[in-house]
Design brief:
Blueprint lengths: L1 H32 L11 E5 H7 L1 H37 L5 H54 L3 E5 L9 H10 L12 H14 L1
Length: 207
């Protein structure tokens, strides 16, 4: 019964995806084939590969190093307490069960373990916050430069293109990747990725 329900769900999802594609593909083709705007001006379209932009943006590399340093420092602090907990465990095993000394060590170990738990949760929250700010900052930079290139080069519309790894073993992840793959095909003549990367890095070097 569960297998039948799963098959039905997958079938319905496939139908939904096909309906979306049947609308989206002709719509995109219509947009690309438009001879001009209402003013009679020829419409200028561009495409930017966000994967490539992120990979080649110099600021990303430096921010990743900063993020890695934050993570390493957090791990070092936790490692000290983990070693302390292991040492206490070894000491407790050598003490007589029920003795005052053993109870004292067990209380000390409980405090260390509680500290570890709290610090681990705090570290995870801080890392998640830093990572979010990291990507927000990069995206804001990229968005600003894409807009700048679009205006400077006279583009009417710039679409995003993302590389999709269809070999992903995770079905949910694969569906997500397919869903964000906005452009299915484009001529290389429309690609403004290199211009965006050059502008980003030039602006970053200037500070």
């Amino acid at each position: 019964m569960a297998a039948l329900e799963l098959g039905l769900i997958s079938h319905l999802e496939r139908e939904k995806l096909m309906r979306l594609l049947s609308f989206f593909v002709p719509f995109l083709a219509l947009i690309i084939s438009l001879p001009g705007t209402t003013m009679g001006k020829e419409m200028k379209l561009g495409v930017v590969n966000l994967n490539k932009v992120f990979d080649q943006y110099d600021k990303r590399k430096e921010l990743e190093n900063d993020f890695r340093d934050i993570r390493n420092r957090s791990e070092e602090v936790l490692k000290v307490k983990q070693d302390e907990a292991m040492a206490l465990r070894d000491e407790i095993q050598l003490l007589e069960a029920g003795s005052v000394a053993r109870k004292k060590k067990e209380e000390d170990m409980e405090k260390v373990l509680l500290y570890l738990q709290i610090e681990d949760e705090v570290a995870k929250r801080n890392l998640a916050k830093a990572e979010k700010e990291f990507y927000e900052e990069l995206f804001q930079d990229i968005n600003a430069v894409v807009e700048e290139v679009g205006k400077k080069e006279g583009f009417d519309l710039i679409l995003k293109k993302e590389d999709i790894d269809t070999k992903s073993a995770d079905l949910v992840e694969l569906r997500l990747k397919i869903g964000i793959g906005t452009v299915l095909y484009f001529s290389n003549a429309l690609d403004v990725t290199d211009k965006v990367v050059e502008s980003l890095n030039r602006r970053y070097k200037k500070g």
